[in-house]
Amino acid sequence: MRQPSVSARRVAAVSVSLVVAAGAVACGPKDNDAKSTGGDSRPHKGGTLNVLNAQPQQDFDPARLYTSGGGNVPSLVFRTLTTRNRENGAAGAKVVPDLATDTGRPSKDATVWTYTLKEGLKYEDGTPITSADVKYGIERSFAPELSGGAPYLRDWLVGAAGYQGPYKDKKGLAAIETPDARTIVFHLNKPEGEFPYLATQTQFTPVPKAKDTGTKYEEHPVSSGPYKVVKNENDGEHLVLERNPNWSAATDAERKAYPDRIDVRSGLDSSVINQRLSASQGPDAAAVTTDTNLGPAELAKVSGDKALAARVGTGHFGYTNYLAFNPKVKPFDDIKVRQAVAYAIDRSSVVNAAGGSALAEPATTFLPNQKSFGYTPYDLFPAGTSGDPAKARELLKQAGHPDGITVTLTHSNSKDFETSPEIATAVQDALKKAGITVRLQGLEKNDYSDKTQNVKTEPGLFLAHWGADWPSGGPFLAPIFDGRQIVQDGANFNSGQLDDTSVNDEIDAINKLTDLDAAAARWGALDKKIGEQALTVPLFHPVYKRLYGKDVKNIVISDWTGVLDISQVAVK
């Protein structure tokens, strides 16, 4: 997942395990939540679910969306070959079939993947969904005018690098074959054992060629899911969905589709969203948010109210906030200096700056602390929760800086509690104790992205963050540490500009594995190996807390999405 500063669309790819505050019991699709609400609170069909969001659901076209596992609101309209398992916690990090009968059948070397569509699949107009529609949906995602989706297919599919989409090249992609109406075959440039994860991306949504209206398709995309679009105002600012009469639950084991109607309103101030969810009056009693978290001040208020606390979902996002070094900038070309910074960090003060322990957990590994990523606990520069300034000074002395050093820390001026001034100041204060004087350089959002993601302007030390496009170590480690992904003339995320043959080779070796548990163990070991080079200093993994209305039931938040799953909720 590209950093959120690049695009708000990436935020949909977060990963959380649900723990409901104040002892309330979170229920999955098969539970009835009677313990937490009393009476007959089993999920029933009917009613309107209201969604209150800050960011509009822009570019509501499966080609243009950057969502993993189908996203949330998009997942109600767009089905894909595979999807995420709609369960709480770690069980939700698994990939499962959606339109396809299974998660894919790989060739021996994982360079060819074959899928078979389920029988009886239909669009909202009753016409059958075919493998040719899936192929066409993928091909149109290559059209420049429909850019914005995940970039993997251009890299992975044979002969796809220069493809410009079906509007300019009607021959299509030879790498995707459709021998019959229910079979689709993908030919890849190299082994990719995680292709089933990629097949959850919305680019794998079927699109009927005859109904494709190009850039206007987002106004009324043809639904393959349980809901269809009946209104899309101001590019997703107000989105209304109603039932798709031709969707069949018999072909869809994942989406429950309890409400009759979904009303999504965006462009709201975050504080207003939380106020409305807190009050839970009128239509807001049946409301949720998919993009607005409780801040420190709001959380303090909510925590003191048992009724409100029982309506807060708490989760751990598969995401890491960290300090990034550019070893091409002195003094960070010396590993001892980088190690000194790692020892000097006071993670307790950083966590406090991020909102406190309720909203952030200290990190010593680059991979998030979830099994699906291959999390392997390690702390290569152990300094406790408050840092070890004495050890840091010792390392600086060994590096030839007995009187300390002065460095610049670049951060964003955005109030995001991640790369913002609060975090930068906490780092500055901690490093001062170790003899490291830190000058802060705050930049506006776009300037910050431009400067930190360009190899020509990348500073020596800056705040960064990363989340994966799916719950695995691959899309977490490769973009940051694979030397072949260093981009010289575009957005570069390999901040350490690491190009280590042994690391690159191990990434390739793991990608060949179709046993995802075995792959996870290898990703964890690789994380520790890379960590020895001290190219980053992991700071914290964010924790997310979100309110939902008092009449909302069947709360499911998985270790894949990190947000309440709209496809599971019911309203009173």
List keywords for this structure.
572 residues, alpha+beta, 6-stranded antiparallel β-sheet, 5-stranded mixed β-sheet, 15 helices, disordered N terminus
Uncertain regions spanning at least 5 consecutive residues: 1-39
Radius of gyration, whole Å? 24 Å
Please report the distance between the alpha carbons of the first and last residues: 35 Å
Mean pLDDT: 90
Number of helical stretches of at least 4 residues: 15
Secondary structure: helix percent: 10-25%
The overall strand count is 21
Main sheet? 6 strands, antiparallel
Strand fraction: 15-25%
**Overall geometric form:** globular
SSE-based structural type: alpha+beta
Can I get a quick summary?
This protein has 572 residues and is α+β, with helices and mostly antiparallel strands. Strands 1, 13, 14, 15, 18 and 19 form a six-stranded antiparallel β-sheet that branches. A five-stranded mixed β-sheet has the order 9-10-11-2-12, with no helix packed on it. Strands 5-6-8-7 form a four-stranded antiparallel β-sheet, covered by helices on one side. Helix content is 22%, strand content 18%.
